[in-house]
Amino acid sequence: MKPSKTSRIIEALRVFYGADAFGVDVGDPYRALVGCILSQRTKDANSARAAEALFAVADTPKSMLALDENHIKQLIRPSGFYNQKARHIIGASRQIVERFHGETPRTRGDLMSLPGVGEKTASIVLSYGYGEPAIAVDVHIHRVARRLGLARGEAKPEEVKLVLEGDLPSSDWSYADGALLQLGKDTCRPRKPACERCPVEKLCGYQEKRF
Ligand code: SF4
């Protein structure tokens, strides 16, 4: 059977970035959850600073609930939208303690019942916290997949996720997640995609390529 276009793109990216460039280092699911909430609508460097400051003081649901809300806001200020993020972190921590005996849930449905947790955050917790393959469609992957023609231009992130996961064996999901994310950050950027040096340019039908 002929490999899907998605498979051919991932293989081309594997050649370009290297077979070991992306994978999942499984870590603590609660830290993955809070880290993902902090990363919403901000740059990686800002959320990393906020996460470092917060986790230095509290990195379990119980220790988080022992902190004053204003203290959390102060610690996570670099990540932006800190009022809402603090509310989500506290709300999620409280529910983890009260409903899940202090254990971060490991099903998508339970994760998405927590405040501040949508499809992407649930995928990241399952992938980075529990080692379960998942493609977390963030703004970069959403844009890149549609420009490449892997999903419809109007497709929502949930649809893009279904298409990508349906096109690839689950053993490729983690690599595809990392490679498409990296392509979106370093080449297929939002405003000025660097099509002239894109490793998958020949497979891309984007109408507004820039050379
Ligand atoms: S060719 Fe251009 S638009 Fe297509 S994936 Fe590469 S950078 Fe993005």
Write the layout of secondary structure elements.
Layout (H helix, E strand, L loop, with lengths): L4 H13 L11 H11 L4 H12 L5 H5 L3 H8 L5 H19 L7 H5 L6 H12 L8 H9 L9 H11 L5 H14 L25
Helix pairs in contact: 1-11, 2-3, 2-8, 5-6, 9-10, 9-11
Question: What can you see in these coordinates?
Answer:
Helix 1 (5-17) packs across helix 11. The radius of gyration is 18 Å and the shape is elongated. It is an all-alpha fold and 211 residues long. It folds into 2 domains: 5-22 and 138-203, Endonuclease Iii, domain 2; 29-130, Hypothetical protein, domain 2 (Endonuclease III, domain 1, Orthogonal Bundle). 56% of the residues lie in helices and 0% in strands. The protein is built from 11 helices and no strands. The model has no long low-confidence stretch (mean pLDDT 94). The structure holds iron/sulfur cluster. Iron/sulfur cluster (SF4) binds at residues 144, 147-148, 187-188, 193-195, 198, 200-201, 204, 206, 209.
